[in-house]
Amino acid sequence: MTLAAATNESLASLSNTLIYSAMAVYTLAFFAYIAEWLFGSRSKVGRTAAALTATKKAGAPAVTVQKAGGTTVLERPKVVVRAASGTRDVPDGPGAHGGDEQGDLYGRIAVSLTVLAFLIEFGGVLARALSVQRAPWGNMYEFNITFSTVAVGVYLTLLALKKNVRWLGLFLITTVLLDLGLAVTVLYTDSDQLVPALHSYWLYIHVSTAIFCGAVFYVGALSSLLYLFKDSYENKLAGGGTPGRFANSVLDRLPASSSLDKFSYRVNAAVFPLWTFTIIAGAIWAGDAWGRYWGWDPKETWSFITWVAYACYLHARATAGWKGRKAAWLALVAFGCWLFNYYGVNIFVSGKHSYADVGLGALQSVGF
Amino acid sequence: MSNTTTDRAEDQDLGAAGSQLSTAPKEELSNLPAMGVVGWVRWFWRQLTSMRVALLLLLLLALGAIPGSLIPQTGSDETKVAEFREQHEVLAPVYDKLGLFHVYSSVWFSAIYILLFVSLIGCIVPRTWQFVGQLRGRPPGAPKRLTRLPAYTTWRTEAEPEQVREAALALLKKNRFRAHLAGDAVAAEKGYLREVGNLLFHIALIVMLIAFAWGQLFKSEGNKLLVEGHGFSNTLISYDDFKSGNLFSTDDLTPFSFTLGDFTGTYETSGPNKGTPRTYQTTLTYAEGAYGKDRKTTVKVNHPLEIGDSKVYLTAHGYAPVVTVRDGKGKVVFRDAVPLLPLDSNVTSSGVIKVLDGYKNAEGVTEQLGLKAFFLPTYTAGSEIASTFPALINPVLNLEPYHGDLGVNSGIPQSVYQLDKKHMKGFKDTKGKQMRDNLRPGQTMKLPDGAGSITYEGTKEWANFQITQQPASGWALAGSLAAILGLAASLFIQRRRVWVRAVKGADGVTVVEMAGLGRSESAKVPEELGDLAGILYEQAAPSAPDPEPTTDPAVPAEGAEK
Ligand code: HEM
Question: Which range has highest mean pLDDT (A205-209, A359-363, B272-276, B536-540)?
């Protein structure tokens, strides 16, 4: 009996050590990303400006990009890709390092450190789960550490799939550090202040997909935010304006606004069916646990609002007059709803998800 | 002819080739309607079923759902609403007028979603017809200048144009394109499932809404507390409390009955989880219909018993001490298990034992008895006022006896768990104080002056069951699964077209041109075009080197990356 308690305690403190270590390594990664951006600023790119001023002079030349068809030895005809009419033809920026070799080196170091920190943080979450012998999603502290682990995991997976996402690194790691800082200070909850496990596998399905969706939505929201900046930058250039030095240096290295827009669309659209599933899984679980599958509980309501907001975003992309900036704002609002559902509803609103039924110790507050 | 007009003509040409790649309604600028009622109605209908209005209604739906999550709702928590009314005397009437205490059944919220669903139906029907038309027709022929398309490739070959076209047709068909020969080019299209998925999704939304509304209108929900060994049959009078939807009638109750065998709770005995339920279940014997066969089952938290549309949930548990009351002559006037209400997670419980009739006091006068009961399943010395563990380890029943008139016949409804002491007098001990005693199982408490005795015989457990009936939840589930399936098809499948044109050039050499067009710009379209071109190219070898297209050294735009 005491032995079990002792192992739990040592696992819990191991978890804390790992989380603090992960924070330390993320901080190093943060500085490496900063170095990447700083070295990158040495090279003067101005690619966007060049493309946009060229557009003005020569009417509407398409940016023709070559794509070799496949990897067969036989020579194949080359496919020319052309932006759809009506969109701005701007090449993607070279990334944070701006083509600078030293910058690139720091960027690679930053990614390696991020991988290391991710592994440590993952270990921390795992140790926490083992110490409490349940899924580590019982309170806001545990939720925060799981959430940032998954968000970084999504980013690293996209990188491993050779997607052009390295530019996200600095923005992501900054917020991961904020998230963890919040977790270990304000939200920290001791391992033994337990909320009992809920005896349903729907909990595992529902909460794990919710966290995953949130992490992916977050990556999409970051991209939408950067899109808004890059788009105004391009608009300014196309309108003959001269953006500030900071914008010139930083925004020019980001992918083209159309690429950012497309990236956030893909990310949000890809995870939207899973978010739909998450809500349905929650409803099934509520049906088993509370005798009704939908009761407009604040948590349920905000999941629904988030869902409708993302449906708005998807519709906006298919509706003339709402593409582009308005759609991007909708994506940000939708993610705002998701965030509110987590922080706002947990802190300001009380509902069925956050109180215990007397006589049923099993039904107690969980993150979701 | 000026350059711009040719451009415009070509754009229109592409428009024809690119049209009908989806069934989304065209966004026309809304002209002011023609005079007359019909004109207005048509204009209104067209507005309602446009994508723009659908988007606005969706936004309104999201906004409209917000107040219900911030203001207490009668549907989920009546006491909170009452509290709110007390605290906000000015706001509450305003909220009442706006229906803000029951947002999700308010007129304005209903208006939003009904409009949205009318719009949805008005959108689905024409889109379905249009899609059927597209399936019956053929992919549109190649635009004049394929170079204007998002993905394009070309080469020259000595093969005859007919030969190339035939090879292209065969190749595209093999790749499951719908392909046909139109003039000097092959036109092909693939990915119709995207549209199917999209229509399925929107139809599934309607199914879900109807199922949900049906469930709300015909639902019922009630509670029944049962002591081990007792039974329940599903009729209105058997319930302790009962709520139902507007269209529910008592005939709708699924006929069934069940008897509670026993309740089993085991709890974590150590560690930070001490006292947490590990198993928490009941065994039931139930019968479907009036004459159904008896069957045995277990019901646990999260695992209700399902009979037809009804579900029986285990929602709470507690203890019911078995008490025997004798009068002064030793005659048993009361023997029953009395359920007590738990006060905390260690099941410290309280309640009242009421002896309504049959009791005569020492003078032979008929009276009623009321015993205030306080119960600890696990009594630990030093912690007299609260149980220290939820299981029955060392039970103690504390009783405080009163006699007189319980007031149950006064016509005012009374809680079975509360004692109205207005017409009751306490039994006094030898020191003249209110009598109060701790009993262990088997122990007896003697009332003073030969007024009788009370024996704590043992303890039974009780379980509370919530019985809900929500018809059409199967439809809601089917609708939501169809919605996910439809969404996945709609979002992951690309609908795209490919054209292959082969004509003899002025020098007698065949020029092959291939172009691809997707509904949205996607990296997959050029990729797929490249693969198809590679195969066709092998089948029709080149005679002359291609003139190199202009190359831009820029980093490829994302759409072009692999
Ligand atoms: C309950 C409300 C609705 C929800 C939740 C919803 C949701 C969605 C979603 C998630 C998509 C996929 C977007 C994409 O393909 O990128 C979509 C597409 C679409 N929706 Fe809705 N929708 C709703 C109502 C409507 C209504 C009322 C209309 C008709 C005016 C409509 C017309 C369409 C059309 C035409 C598309 C396809 C757009 C395309 O081809 O890209 N929807 N909807």
Answer: A205-209
B250-259: b (≥16 Cβ within 10 Å) or e: eebbbbbbbb
Q: pLDDT tens digits for B89-140?
A: 888 899 988 989 989 888 999 999 999 999 999 989 999 999 999 999 899 8
Backbone angles phi, psi at B482, to 5 degrees: -60, -40
The answer to whether B300 touches B283, Cβ cutoff 8 Å, is: no
Q: Quote the CA–CA distance of B451 and B435 in Å, as a whole number.
A: 13
What's the pLDDT tens digit per position in A115-128?
999 999 999 999 98
The gap from C-alpha B552 to its chain's centroid, in whole angstroms, comes to 53
Looking at ligand 1, which residue's alpha carbon is closest to its atom 35? B24
Tokens of A236: 């300014």
How many residues are given for chain B?
Answer: 562
pTM of the model: 0.84
Inter-residue contact B451 to B427 (CB < 8 Å): yes
Which residue in the set B491, B492, B533 is minimally distant from A79, CB to CB?
Answer: B533
What's the B136 CA to ligand 1 centre distance in angstroms? Answer: 24
Minimal CA separation from A122 to chain B, in Å: 24
Interface contact B275-A361, CB threshold 8 A: yes
3 state DSSP class of B244: strand
**Residue in A48, A52, A80, A128 to test binding to B, most B beta-carbons within 10 Å:** A80
| Facing residue for A79 by CB, picked from B27, B476, B526 | B526
**Which residues does chain B have within 8 Å of residue A308's beta carbon, measured at their own beta carbons?**
58, 61-62, 65
pLDDT digits (tens, 9 = 90+) for A186-220: 888 776 544 444 556 787 889 899 999 999 999 99
Structure-model confidence comparison of residues B520 and B327, the more confident one? B327
Kindly state if the Cβ of B22 falls inside 6 Å of ligand 1.
yes
Sheet with A65-67, strands from edge to edge, namely A65-67, A79-81, B151-157, B510-518, B496-504, B185-190, B178-182
Give the integer Cα–Cα distance in Å for B239 and B224: 5
For B348, nearest residue in chain A (alpha carbons): A359
Is residue B417 within 8 A of residue B436, CB to CB? The reply is: no
pLDDT tens digits, residue range A113-164?
A: 999 999 999 999 999 888 877 777 777 888 899 999 999 999 999 999 988 8
Test site for ligand 1: of B200, B490, B491, B520, most ligand atoms within 8 A of the Cβ: B490
DSSP, res B457 = E
**How does A290-299 read in b/e, with b if 16+ C-beta sit within 10 Å?**
bbbbbbbbbb
Cα dihedral A225, A230, A233, A235 sign: negative
